[in-house]
């Protein structure tokens, strides 16, 4: 049923596009969006909105980006809807838009995406959006991404938590500084433990002082001095 409804919307958008005299080329439709954005009359904004139902994912992404930049009142809602787009590029743009908007109402949707999306770049950008929002609920959702199998997602989650509320993931940071296979993440975890400054993390840092990577050892030394 959802697919049927979407096909109906796409067909309607195609009819509208034809009535506007638009090209069938995705490249030209993307260029058209920027032309419409430069003359942001109510009519042109509606034309951009119509492109949210375009058959091409990049065109839908361009339309969402334009509407967010124009500051339409429902920008957050449109971006949240974009997180469910079938096209991964469109979902990335939706996540980036929510980072720019930093609206706490998007936390639940971003929390779902940061765990479930099949494209790790979407998960990474969703983590960065949660960090930009920075509320307690956003940090909780970020902690769920610390177990992601992809380094970039874990890094985004660690950096976001360190920036907002490092004490929210002390135990995980202890495990990471000792066990994570990526040295960049062990560095971030060591820095986080140094910021937290709790005595009970010192044994883990002392063990990590023997890390085979020089950058990790340097980060651990700095964390121990901070403690």
CATH architecture of one domain: Alpha Horseshoe
Would you count the extended β strands for me?
Answer: 0
Please give the share of residues in helix: over 70%
Instruction: Kindly provide the radius of gyration, computed on alpha-carbon positions and rounded to a whole number of angstroms.
Output: 22 Å
- What structural class should be given to the helix and strand makeup? mainly alpha
Q: In the CATH scheme, what's the topology name of one domain?
A: Leucine-rich Repeat Variant
Question: What's the helix-strand series?
Answer: HHHHHHHHHHHHHH
- Calculate the mean pLDDT score and round it: 90
| Main sheet specs | none
Quick one: overall form? elongated
Low-confidence stretches: 2-17
How many distinct helices?
Answer: 14
CATH class of one domain: Mainly Alpha
The proportion of strand residues reads: under 5%
Separation, N- and C-terminal Cα atoms? 58 Å
By CATH's scheme, which homologous superfamily of one domain applies? Leucine-rich Repeat Variant
């Amino acid at each position: 049923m959802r697919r049927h409804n979407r096909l109906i919307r796409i067909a309607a958008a195609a009819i509208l596009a034809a009535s506007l005299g638009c090209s069938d080329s995705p490249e030209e439709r993307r260029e058209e969006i920027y032309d419409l954005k430069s003359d942001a009359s109510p009519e042109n904004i509606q034309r951009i909105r119509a492109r949210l139902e375009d058959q091409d994912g990049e065109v839908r992404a361009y339309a969402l980006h334009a509407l967010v930049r124009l500051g339409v009142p429902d920008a957050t809602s449109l971006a949240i809807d974009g997180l469910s787009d079938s096209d991964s590029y469109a979902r990335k743009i939706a996540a980036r838009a929510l980072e720019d908007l930093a609206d706490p109402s998007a936390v639940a949707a971003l929390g779902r995406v940061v765990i479930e999306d099949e494209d790790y770049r979407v998960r990474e950008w969703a983590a960065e959006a949660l960090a930009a929002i920075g509320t307690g609920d956003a940090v909780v959702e970020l902690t769920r991404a610390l177990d992601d199998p992809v380094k970039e997602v874990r890094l985004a989650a660690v950096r976001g938590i360190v920036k907002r509320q490092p004490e929210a993931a002390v135990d995980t940071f202890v495990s990471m500084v000792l066990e994570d296979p990526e040295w960049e993440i062990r560095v971030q975890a060591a820095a986080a433990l140094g910021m937290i400054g709790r005595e009970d993390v010192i044994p883990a840092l002392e063990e990590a002082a023997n890390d085979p990577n020089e950058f990790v050892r340097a980060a651990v030394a700095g964390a121990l001095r901070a403690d």
